[in-house]
Hints:
It is a multi-pass membrane protein. The protein has 25 helices and 26 strands. The protein is α+β, with helices and mostly antiparallel strands. It has a seven-stranded mixed sheet, sandwiched between helices. The chain has a six-stranded antiparallel sheet with strand order 6-5-7-13-8-11, with no helix packed on it.
Amino acid sequence: MAQETYYVRGMSCTSCAKTFENNVKDIESVEDAHVNFGASKITVQGDASIQQLEQAGAFESLSVSKQYEKHTPHRLNTLKSNWHIVASSIFLLIGIYLLVQLGEEHPVTTTAFLASIAVGGYQLLSTGVRHLLRLRFDMKTLMTIAVIGAAIIGEWVEGAVVVILFAISEALERFSIDRARSSIQSLMELAPDTARVRRNNEFLELNISDLQIGDTVIIRPGEKIPVDGIISKGESTINQAAITGESVPVFKDKNEEVFAGTLNEEGYLEVDVQKLAEDSTLAKIIHLVEEAQNEKAPAQQFIDRFAAYYTPLIMIIALGVATVPPIFFGLSFETWVYQGLAVLVVGCPCALVISTPVAIVTAIGSAARNGVLIKGGAYLEALGQIKTIAFDKTGTITQGKPVVQSYQLFDENISAEYFFQKAYALETLSQHPLAKAITEYANQHAQPEQLSNVTNFQSITGKGVTGEIDRSRFKIGSPSMFDLNSEQQTAVNEARQSGHTVILMSENDRILGLVSIADAIRPMAENMVAKLNKLNINRTVLLTGDHEVTAKSISHQVGIKQYLSQLLPKDKQVKVKELQEQHGQIAMVGDGVNDAPALATANVGIAMGSAGTDTALETADIALMGDDLSKLPYTMKLSRKALNIIKQNIVFALTTKALALLLVIPGWLTLWIAILADMGATLLVTLNALRLLKLKD
């Protein structure tokens, strides 16, 4: 069965999205359909034309397109899309004027109000009547009953005002949802639509969807990079903020990777295409954000279940208010039917239903724009409740590669330059990671312009290397290769206590000095842990395969409160389970490769994204796209704020309706108060959720 995805414009509420989905499923040639409300998309299994889909969404005037269309809001377009509100308001004003001049019962007055209701509420009433006939009870069903009832009992002014205010409420809701979706739209608009390509010695301007792997793309200074690829010619600084959230541009040279949607700031580049447009890092991020915004958080699942019982309950209460006082207590039938209609309006679940998804959509989109990928509302909500965070060491707290931390010379007659020139000559012939650390340091500080000739080179497995330079015998390696005096042994012990690996070098058995090597701690790690402490993260734990001395040293330097050392990858998973049993929910931060079991076991797995590596994106619930630990406290703050806003919205929506319903007891509830309470609650919960857009890293 063929499957197609379409973009939908004008989808403003979850109830409307569900109605649209059901209407599409009713198309004879469609096997199944699924609406992604957060991304404003529908996936259709089967055969359906765009015309059929738009007909299914005609109740909401939905427009459907196969490709995402860049949309720039314009005042004139806004006016056109809301013409019915303007026309309905004009008819209402005419009706009020005629009411004063001709009286309420005059046919011309009634006609003006009827025109106001018909123009402003055509879509509302047609959908509501259709739902009523199918016994499908939603907010439009309630509003339709209220408007028809107001017309029957002659409350023309209130009926027209209810229609106009409900239309305004829906327009505001659409605006708020569009603002919340703006993060996805801004991501989609990052990559250019076309690319300048050199293919078979010809220069072509092609749509990015037509690019093939191996094509060479030409990118001039100031242009956006259209594809993921490898630089084959040129060098430049690249602004990667769109993908990684990094505020500082990164210098890229030949054979380095670049990503679609990033900005080439100053140099001419030729880039060999490595991934098709639909497989680029940006495309994956967009897909994951769209899916995440459609994932329902526990709070939203509760609201959906609650609304299923809430709407019929409101209808029963409204029926009771309209019938019990007149039938059993002999009170005015007209007065209490009016009160019952007001109950229907104030009980409309619009604000309640929209309270959670708008916050989820906004928060996940805001995080994506700041270089943090959250895979769903459930993880957003769970992170807000976390009090314990475990960190992998290598590649997470540290940079994942050994570097020289310090050195000490034991022979006053030699210089540091002499020491590192000889070390460079020997270690260049070794393949050990520690040897690479020494050669890189020597390159930067000793500048060994001419490589010394090494003869009789020999590698001693697990210890080091030896060789002859200028007829002198040199050895470089671990302390076990050398006979140390007390001063030298003390220096070695001190370095080891700091968690460093020690390398010694000798010339003709005379020890020249030592080099301390360690996996460098990420510069932002200490600041990140301090910020987490301020956010009342009660427990931070370091998980590492290194020995206890190193684990203790790094924990102390960074400020992590607890460490567990000498752990294999499977041991980390066991320790995460133990921490869960001891302290409840736990988040795990790792590099997304060998930490996969532990990340999957934690309540929230957070991966260092390595600018979008497949492993990180697939393994984790949350990915820090730029490997930037400073994004973690921001994400914690965002999740907590989102959680608070969701709770505030639910409480506010229910409280507003409860207070308005209490006005029924003294008979003070009017349709005016009801619609203002409903519209006000809807507007306030959406505006409250949009505050998440203001939270910056």
